[in-house]
Amino acid sequence: MVLIVQKYGGSSVADAASIKRVAKRIAAARRAGDEVVVVVSAMGDTTDELIELARQVTPLPPSREMDILLTAGERISMSLLAMAIANLGVAAHSFTGQQAGVITDTVHGKARIIDVTPGRIREALDSGAVAIVAGFQGVTQYTNDVTTLGRGGSDTTAVALAAALDADVCEIYTDVDGVFTADPRIVPTARRIDRITYEEMMEMAASGAKVLGLRCVEYARRYGVPVHVRSSFSGREGTLVTDELEEEDIVEEPIISGVAHDRSEAKITVVGVPDVPGKAARIFEVVATSGVNIDMIVQNVSAAATGLTDISFTLPATDGQVATAALTAAQPEIGYASMQYDDTIGKLSLIGAGMRSHPGVSAKLFSALSRAGINIEMISTSEIRISVVTSADHLDDAVRAVHSAFDLDSSEGEAVVYGGTGR
Amino acid sequence: MVLIVQKYGGSSVADAASIKRVAKRIAAARRAGDEVVVVVSAMGDTTDELIELARQVTPLPPSREMDILLTAGERISMSLLAMAIANLGVAAHSFTGQQAGVITDTVHGKARIIDVTPGRIREALDSGAVAIVAGFQGVTQYTNDVTTLGRGGSDTTAVALAAALDADVCEIYTDVDGVFTADPRIVPTARRIDRITYEEMMEMAASGAKVLGLRCVEYARRYGVPVHVRSSFSGREGTLVTDELEEEDIVEEPIISGVAHDRSEAKITVVGVPDVPGKAARIFEVVATSGVNIDMIVQNVSAAATGLTDISFTLPATDGQVATAALTAAQPEIGYASMQYDDTIGKLSLIGAGMRSHPGVSAKLFSALSRAGINIEMISTSEIRISVVTSADHLDDAVRAVHSAFDLDSSEGEAVVYGGTGR
Fold first, then answer.
1. Is residue B414 very low, low, confident or very high in pLDDT (cuts 50, 70, 90)?
2. Is residue B113 packed enough to be buried (19+ CB in 10 Å), middle (13-18) or exposed (0-12)?
3. Contact B65/A94, CB-based, under 8 Å?
4. Is A219 annotated as a binding residue?
5. What Enzyme Commission number does this protein have (chains A, B) (predicted)?
6. Which pLDDT belongs to residue B247?
7. ipTM value of the model?
8. Which residues of B touch A78 (CB under 8 A)?
């Protein structure tokens, strides 16, 4: 007997018909003899509708109340799914994050799981029932307040439960067939990846690939939970995210796993910073103190004549206002000349564990971009990733050029659907 | 400083605009220096929409899952209301039934409150905040499963919290101006009742008056909680339900409080029952064992020649199928000839504590009905109530005739609106 944790996203349970379809898949898994725990997101657009209701009531909803509001969505989907499974003659019990023992810190809106005590889930499984668990939510340790885990939170719930229950696999059902070598909406010839390491998947997620959240993959790696990303709309095998590749896979391991892209960042350039020790550090301190995470940094070589330098960095565009306000307030102290803000940038990342041992990867990347006439504004690298910032206009062309240059194009087309709520 | 528990029904929080309107009323009460606890129902039609979703998924939703589904409605309304109050600069925290300490038995769908431990509510009040509590829901004592309290459950939540917090008054806000001498849709000249005793209010509720639930009034009487029923759409005083009337009220106490009516019952007549000891008792045992509550009973005088008698009783029409099936199964054992089922009946009830000491009330009632040409099928009485069953067709005429005969008509008209979800 195998213990499977399955997670279904909002697009897989968008309406009564979808819920009944998913229920059939779950009932079949249970009837095949497996123990099944299901983590479910809110139905389709429920979350957006609740956010809109909050907006109608107040421009500044308190985060504690916002979390209570949003978690109503999963209560609805989880109870309906349990009903639909029961209607097929398979026992099913639904559990809130609290009932499932998902304990978090107290940061409303993006809480982190600090413990999972799934006693009631284990009991339900022992009684032969399927356990349905509300994704995206938990409860604080001492005050029993409801929290939400932020974007991709349901994936994290699923992996955390899989770890706590020592599950054999965590299946993430979504509306695409798995993880692709690039976004198929931009690169129609993108291939589905059969297997990928946690490390590479983390770089993909951090670089803008939306199919799995970064936290979820971090959690899976820490606890060694195999994650199978697959479509709830087909019976196909998807992408297995795992610790190590099989012996045979290593032999055939491609140098490059895929090309990720990200349009959600912006670039701030601080112009005319006095080139004296501590000034650059002070800029990043000011930004960090305002609660903003910086991604890439470039400091130009100082012009000796002026003793001034320019510093550019990227950050989530949603934090742009906070960061520029903090820097403006610190201008007298830091003594920079001016500041530029650009939210029309795009980031392309090439990811692959194989690039560790294969020199020449970056040369090939830059020559592909150059041949396509694309200007590079910033560069950053890790052992298994190279990222470049381009103008947003050129990002799609850049992704296609790089995807081709590294022979990632598939010979056969795959039917894929994109969408989903990201919970 | 006074502690007020306010309860708002679904029609009072039907949309964002209504929520903001109610928030202003609550903020004003808090600013006036009172401690305020608010119990809130689900928004407008939310409950009906959730029930419809469940119906689309399965014809027989398990009651545990149904309770989880339905309680999502109050999570949405309570968090939105807390946000709207916070937006007016008044601190507000929302609490689920569980967080508010509403402990119930395990009967899903119509659980009974067995304890209320409002420690977190008390803390919120001590911190100066308004506490918003989800109505209609509780949690089981040992398993922490979510339960709902059934029809009128939010009123019961409000009264139970008022009792546990030793509140000065429990205000039930609804879409009518209070309790009326009859349903104003049937009797346009019906008067609002200023004060009414728990006892009379219980008879009104049990006889079909929908403005307050029976359980809620029972609870209020047991703990001596004064209940003020009033409209959330006006600033007028409503009806005070209280332990005893004031000295001056007793002097002017009217004989009759009001006329209630009920269309929700049906009548079963068991024809040709052998008139031997134990047969009638057996009929009621069979019905009781099927879980059905009987209201009124009439046994005809036995026809000596045949040794057979007829027995009629009324019951909720929703239980008609269960009861007739149970009786049909028991026909060989009981040996009755046939059974008749009639769901086109109506029940009129005249209620008033004054009728205890005023003879002639029943004579006046029967003569009024007789003058109006209305046939009486069954009669039952208590110390402060007389109920009669008529045909459903004649019920409205009967209510108007009795209302007039007891001088309950108002000289001035009152603007009232009916509706609401009954939660």
1. very low
2. buried
3. yes
4. no
5. 2.7.2.4
6. 55
7. 0.76
8. 68
Q: Is A21 on the interface with B (CB under 8 A)?
A: no
Rg of chain A over all Cα atoms, to the nearest angstrom:
23
pLDDT tens digits, B353-373: 888 777 788 889 999 999 999
In A172-191, which positions are buried (b, 16+ CB within 10 angstroms) versus exposed (e)?
Answer: bbbbbbbbbbbbbebbebbb
CA distance B15 to B199: 36
**Could you give the maximum distance between any two Cα atoms of chain B, in Å?**
81
Among A19, A72, A83, select the one facing B75 at the smallest CB separation.
Answer: A72
- Cβ-based contacts of B83 with chain A (< 8 Å): 54, 57-58, 61-62, 65-66, 69
Q: Is B285 annotated as a binding residue?
A: no
Chain segment B245-261, per-residue pLDDT in tens:
665 555 555 678 999 99
Which positions 51-70 of A are in contact with B (Cβ < 8 Å)? Answer: 53-54, 56-62, 64-66, 68-69
Say if B404 is an interface residue toward chain A (CB within 8 Å).
no
B144 interfacial to chain A (CB closer than 8 Å): yes
Q: Looking at the complex, report in whole angstroms how far the Cα of residue B324 sits from the nearest Cα belonging to chain A.
A: 27
Q: Tell me which of A255 and A268 has the higher pLDDT.
A: A268
Query: Are B87 and A20 a contacting pair at CB < 8 A?
Result: no
Asked if the C-beta of A87 comes within 8 angstroms of chain B's C-beta atoms, the answer is yes
B279 near B419, Cβ under 8 Å?
no
How far, in Å, CA of B118 to CA of B166, rounded?
A: 11
Enumerate residues 210 to 269 of chain A having a beta carbon within 8 A of any beta carbon in chain B.
none
Which residue would you say has higher pLDDT here, B85 or B1? B85
Which residue on chain A is closest to B65 by alpha carbon? A79
Residues of A in contact with B94 (CB under 8 A): 65, 68
Q: Do A69 and B75 touch (CB under 8 A)?
A: yes
Q: How confident is the model at residue A415 (pLDDT cuts 50, 70, 90)?
A: very low
Half-sphere exposure of B317 (CA within 13 A, CB side): 12
Q: Do A72 and B72 touch (CB under 8 A)?
A: yes
What is the radius of gyration, based on Cα positions, of chain B?
A: 23
pLDDT, averaged across chain B? 90
Indicate whether B195 pLDDT > 70.
yes
The domains of chain A, with CATH numbers, are: 3-251 (3.40.1160.10)
Compute CA distances B125 → A418, B35, B37, B79, whole Å.
48, 6, 8, 17
Q: Which long-range contacts (CB under 8 A, 24 or more apart) does B285-290 make?
A: B286/B326, B286/B327, B286/B330, B286/B334, B287/B313, B287/B315, B287/B323, B287/B326, B287/B327, B289/B326, B290/B322, B290/B323, B290/B325, B290/B326
Interacting residues of A334 by C-beta distance below 8 A, sequence separation 6+: A270, A273, A279, A282, A283, A286, A327
- Is B109 part of any known ligand binding site? no
pLDDT of residue A418: 40
Calpha distance A160→B225 (Å, rounded): 47
Average pLDDT over residues B334-339: 93
| β-bridge mates for residue B231, sequence order | B174
